[in-house]
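[audit] Reproducing an earlier prediction to check determinism. Same input, same settings, fresh worker. If the tokens differ from the archived copy the diff job will pick it up downstream; this log only records the rerun itself.
[audit] input (329 residues):
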Amino acid sequence: MSVSILFVDDEEHILTSLVRLFAGTGMNVLRAGSAVEAMPLFERHEIAVVVADNMMPGMRGVQLFSRLKDSAPQAVKILMTSYADLPSALEAINRGEVYRFVVKPWDNDELVAIVEQSVHRYLTLSTLAREDEAVIQGLAQTIELKDPYTRGHCGRVASYALMIADELRLSQQMLKDIRYGSWLHDCGKIGVPETILNFGGPVAAREFDTIKKHPVWGAEVARQAHLATTVVEIVLHHHERFDGDGYPQGLAGEAIPLAARIVAVADVYDALTTERPYRRAYSWQKGIEILLSMKGNALDPALVDCLVDALKKRKLLPDDCGGGNRSHG
């Protein structure tokens, strides 16, 4: 890969161990014996991940990360620390300067997994920061590869969401944000194991708790990539419910951002009418019947009617299908 990972530690034997550990991973590994030695490397290399010891003479790890916030803002920062230094590590995480911390002595498998995940995060952030439509759509398609049952899902959700937005006569900027948010609404699933995503039945409570974290993970990625607030809101809130029983924040009614409510309707309709690991696709008749039954509990009633009306106008539903027929204010 063209990007590099950098290890910074004042102890030579630790640097040697780290370089040896990552020698077979295919990553380009750099090393520095101090924070001062590390700084010039960012001018000569594209560094995706920097793993730094905190307790170093001269400039500590957290001080290095503070300086990198301006010069290498997208580099993913991992702090190595001892148990005695845990409070300062947690403080650095809370200030947003550190993505993960690793306690010495580290577990080799765990450290490799954390660094690989961090490289993926860097590439995702770098991709989103370009705000190029083809690139963002390509990222959404890459995410879908984790779950073969959702192939094409993000594109279809965007189509349905834009139908609703057209019915509401929203601005061109809003349409663009809804398109991007629809493509990226499930980007947090990067952090959900495929074994959970592709499980052929109801998942256990613990696994579902992992799945429920994907909106927060995804919104954090979108936020750090400096995407529009509306895009971040879609990613964060597309699993809220109109009655307040959704996640991650339990928002209800119009407290849920409009764009997120729109994408939620589109997301549910596509999920109902496509095949899933745990069931066959419903017919459009059954899908619409279930969608209408969710008005006022899971979904915004007016937006469900918008989608039904839009599908009728495009001859994707017969005119005598239930729902819709509301006036556009």
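[audit] rerun output stored. Observation attached for the diff report: Residues 54 and 306 are 54 Å apart (CA to CA).
[audit] end
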